[in-house]
Amino acid sequence: MSTSEAPATMAEAVRRLREIAHAWVDGGHRDAGALIAAASGAVMAGVDTPSLWHLAALGRCEHDEAPGLFGRVMDELGFGFHPPEGYWEGRLALARWWASEIVGGWLDPAEGAALIYYKVAEAYGRCEELAPLIDVVMAHGERGGRQRSPAEAGAELIQAARELVARIPRP
Questions:
Q1: How confident is the model over 16-46, as pLDDT tens digits?
Q2: Where on the phi/psi map is residue 105: left (φ > 0), alpha (ψ -120 to 50), or beta?
Q3: 101 close to 113: Cβ distance less than 8 angstroms
């Protein structure tokens, strides 16, 4: 990452790390170089945690340490994710985490709904815990259905995410 690509503010740097975390927690981001570059950008923007500095300083021969360090960085910055042992409980916890990221404004509602729908709900079909979000996603996908503005669609997804957070207990 060159200095021109570095985040201008600490908030932008943390948002970038959080964006990586959204895919990373479910195995969607395994590029150690990208983790190291994001950490370097965050350090240059003024973000300061012990593991972030360590991650940013990794050399090419140490790339295998990046995932573990990134997990610690997420914890140090307050958005770590630790799923329960059981597979289904872990998937529900992941759906809850993504939903809480939507509600908190850290994850785009459409992107988060897609993650929950395709990574969790699609495998299990309709279930009580995920019903609010599935209903909204299905309504948005209906042909001939009511057309919604992007703002209205986003608000509906955020409300569905709130309901999902309320239905799924914390791990």
A1: 998 888 887 777 666 889 899 999 999 999 9
A2: left
A3: no
Q: Give 115's contacts (C-beta < 8 A, 6+ positions apart).
A: 22, 26, 98, 107
Take residue 13 and report the two structure tokens written for it: 């740097």
**Could you tell me which of 120, 108, 135 has the C-alpha nearest to residue 168?**
120
Extract the tokens encoding 2. 């060159």
Q: What rounded mean pLDDT belongs to the chain?
A: 88
Per-residue pLDDT tens over the stretch 135-147: 998 888 776 667 7
One-letter amino acid for residue 69 of the chain? L
Whether the Cβ atoms of residue 47 and residue 14 lie closer than 8 Å to each other: yes
Q: Count Cβ atoms within 10 A of the Cβ of residue 89 and give its class: 0-12 exposed, 13-18 middle, 19 or more buried.
A: middle
